[in-house]
Amino acid sequence: MKDRLPRDDVLIGEHYYILASSVAADLPKLVLKHDDAFLVADRRGDFPNVPGEFGFYVGDTRFLSLLELRLHGLRGIALNAGVSDDALEAAIDLTNPDMPLQPHLVLPGRSMRLARRLTIFGPQLYHWLAVESFVQERHDLALTLSFAADFVDVFEVRGHPRPQRGEMLPREGDARVVRLGYRGLDGLRRTSTLVFDPPPDRLDATGADYHLPLGPGDRFELSLVVTANLEPDAAPRTLTFFDAAQRRRAPVERLSQEATRVRTNHDLFDHWLQRSRHDLHLLLTETADGFVPYAGIPWYVAPFGRDALITALQLLPFEPEIARGTLRYLARLQGTVDDAFTDQEPGKILHEYRRGEMATCREIPFIPYYGSVDATPLFVMLASAYLKWTDDVDFAREMWPAVERALAWMWAMGEAQGRGFLAYARRSPVGLPNQGWKDSHDSVMYADGRLAEPPIALAEVQGYQYAALLGAAAMAEALGRDAEVPALRARARRLQERFEADFWLPDEAFYALALDRDGAPCRVISSNPGHLLWTRIVSDSRAQIVARRLLQDDMFTGWGLRTLSSRERAYNPMSYHNGSVWPHDTALAAVGMREYGMNAQFLTLATGLFEAVLQFDDMRMPELFCGFPRVAGYAPTRYPVACSPQAWASGVVFQLIGAMLGLRPEAADNQITLARPTLPGWLTWIEIRGLRVSKSRLGMRVLQGSDGAAVELLARDGDAELVVRR
Question: What is this structure's pTM?
């Protein structure tokens, strides 16, 4: 293996956060994923020999860290590079530079085309290459594929130091197969098996060479299949590239056929919709329980409770199967014991689940890890919302024991806290110090910049708990458990009263970010109270005040909401959570404003997000971007190690559409209401086909009107009623 280039990295946050390579951050990237496997390549299709995230990963391990194509020792010139519209296949077209073949013989540039295709199916990377000759004479060329496998854990790639690693194993193979191996500190043997067709002229542990005599019009094809395997599991059989690509597409095509179709009069908005849907399908992992959205590529290709639940809520009106799979999966892994190392308690919903060497060696706690204070109420919120959309009472009964366990955990936590609030304090020595959605180590602070003392009760989490209690009451009522309903609603009312008394800051006319261990408020202005509008825990009058404050210049950049006011001591627009803009965070606040009838404010934020996504490559909304003020003629400033794609960033556009339409399902009554539908000035109409409520499907068009939006029913399959409320 070649030595890696000197590192030039910057640590972002503490040891669970990301090393930003100044080399890798500047390079355009191609990403693909299938289930627990993903790759990050440069625009030539290589995994280059530079520090950073490039490589092929399966189950949190990098099984191929180097893959570089050379023609006569030179890199190709990229003519075109991108992923297919469905995000499942990468296509790269290269050509040769001027190439000295002999002392007085130069092969002119652009004489050869190298068409390269990449896809992933299961734990296998499929690489297909065609070399086409457009020369006028015959030439003998050398084609080389260099490769290496370092078998590092994704947390090592992120910058987590390890004092000790396992051992690399001797290379095995024959004329067309090479197997690279590693035995980890967990005692498990991981192998990367590379199969070449046709066999190369030379094959060893570092690369493969082909000698190509190419004349005018000649063509040469080769395929490489890389199989990642964790023994003693049996490796899957090798397919052809085109068979693997077809099988990879099959489940996505099924999902697409079932999904609600959305289109508008605006081509660019439609492109954002399609890009987001394809990215969401890319991020789905098919489990025994159904489809579960993984959080993002490259750092979070794993189940995250909070991310999956919010993404499923964003997509619920359009693809309810995702909510169903997510609920089943998280219910199966719900906490059952008290375990300090993983911050697990009975009833809690997991935060993160990893399967790499560092997890199995318990160097990290994500096995799974339960250090999330908000995933549990979000689980209850999704379960109740799913019932409201589908009227699937049988599934609700299946989920009810998990809902009851979640409610019991919430009750115990509230009693321990003393005021009914959900709060967190890390128990695991290697766990997360902050356990809300802003989970970086420095994201919860006092006005003077000091970090808050745990246990910490975050503002938005109390909103989630409030919505969860009311949602659970509605579920109980639907399941005939009437005796439990009054107590749940009474808990919600008491929580709301205590929240208003303890979190409201009269001098700021805003809600505190959090309460510390002594119940003292963190008197900083943040985006967290925007989520309170989404969950409707605040009164109408205070909702208006919160919205006005969020839209002031220190919070609203023109693209979206800063996570922290630019007037705060801890503000840094390039930080992860202390002044950056997270699209899903802005969208939740926007949708909350819409809930309170603040249409103009909602449209301001929705428009800012749309105008932001126009500036990103292929209109792929990133996990976050920097919180600098918007400047006319310039794009948002990117965050160097943001996941892209990222699940809840991709779900933003669907959540905004649901809010524009004012969707209010009542599947038990076989009815869906459009509550005061409203469109931004840049949208003339939105058309929805196949919208499901209970067992019916509806098609409709919402059009811009002089006095609100007009609604036209286009199709009805079933007997559901469409109600328009103005």
Answer: 0.96
